[in-house]
Automatic annotation (TrEMBL):
Function: Specifically methylates guanosine-37 in various tRNAs.
GO CC terms of this entry: cytosol
Upper classification of the organism: Bacteria, Pseudomonadati, Pseudomonadota, Alphaproteobacteria, Hyphomicrobiales
Subcellular location: Cytoplasm
SUPFAM superfamilies (alphabetical): alpha/beta knot
Gene: trmD
Residues that hold S-adenosyl-L-methionine according to the record: G114, V134, G135, D136, Y137, V138, L139
The organism of origin for this protein: Flavimaribacter sediminis
Name of the protein described by the UniProt record: tRNA (guanine-N(1)-)-methyltransferase
GO biological process: tRNA N1-guanine methylation
């Protein structure tokens, strides 16, 4: 059974977008995963097809209405659908490689792309939406964030990457950033490829790469190393 992604959005024309090319696009063509878009506005009941209203208590902007979004979710994810329901939101838990890996092992995802000032909290609670963030910044909507998350998930699906081991040494695996990479020419602008990578000694190459990954992580993302230490203590 292929991985099924259902996207609830006010802008279905944004999909598949970048997901139609490269690894994700080829996997989509092969049927390794499927993508369904659901237009939230189709579930509005008034003649203006309204999906938002002013925030209770006052304030700037508009809020996505609970009743409209709930109907859209119930259509995309009826009772018995075991897929997690995710809401792309800047206040959500940060998306990690560990979470991506877990999602890739499942049947699929239902993703709600928020807009405006946010989503009525009652539909978040009532439909058990898990809020997910792709970074500490605010986008105009959840669609770009959904594309980022799906790209990260799809590449981990079985058969999508040509080499089954190619993801094991990437950044964030084992709480490390990836080591530096090199290829031909052997010398570029007086900068040579490190001798160890040309030595043919795979044990030495593995050790060098590990040392480089650890040093790079300590310089740029020491929080990853601290997280690993805390996990080991726990």
């Amino acid at each position: 059974m292929s991985f099924r992604a259902s996207l609830l959005t006010l802008y279905p024309q944004m999909f598949p977008g970048p997901l139609s090319v490269s690894l994700a696009g080829r996997a989509l063509e092969r049927g390794d995963w499927s993508l369904e878009t659901v237009q939230i506005r189709d579930f509005a009941t008034d003649r203006h097809r309204s999906v938002d209203d002013t925030p209770a208590g006052g304030g700037a902007g508009m809020v996505l209405k609970a009743d409209v979004l709930a109907r859209a979710i119930d259509h995309a994810s009826p009772e018995g659908d075991a897929r997690p329901r995710l809401l792309m939101s800047p206040r959500g838990a940060p998306l990690t490689q560990e979470r991506v890996r877990a999602l890739a092992k499942g049947e699929g995802v239902v993703i709600v792309c928020g807009r405006f000032e946010g989503v009525d909290q009652r539909v978040i609670d009532g439909r058990d939406l898990e809020e997910v963030s792709v970074g500490d910044y605010v986008l105009s909507g959840g669609e770009p964030a959904a594309i980022v998350m799906l790209d990260a998930i799809v590449r981990l699906l079985p058969g999508v990457m040509g080499n089954a081991h190619s993801g094991q040494s990437e950044s964030f695996e084992n709480d490390l950033l990836e080591y530096p990479q090199y290829t031909k020419p052997q010398v570029f602008e007086a900068r040579p490829i490190p001798d160890v990578l040309l030595s043919g000694n795979h044990a030495e190459i593995d050790r060098w790469r590990r040392e480089q990954a650890e040093a790079l992580t300590m310089r740029r993302r020491p929080d990853l190393r601290e997280r690993k230490k805390n996990l080991q203590k726990g």
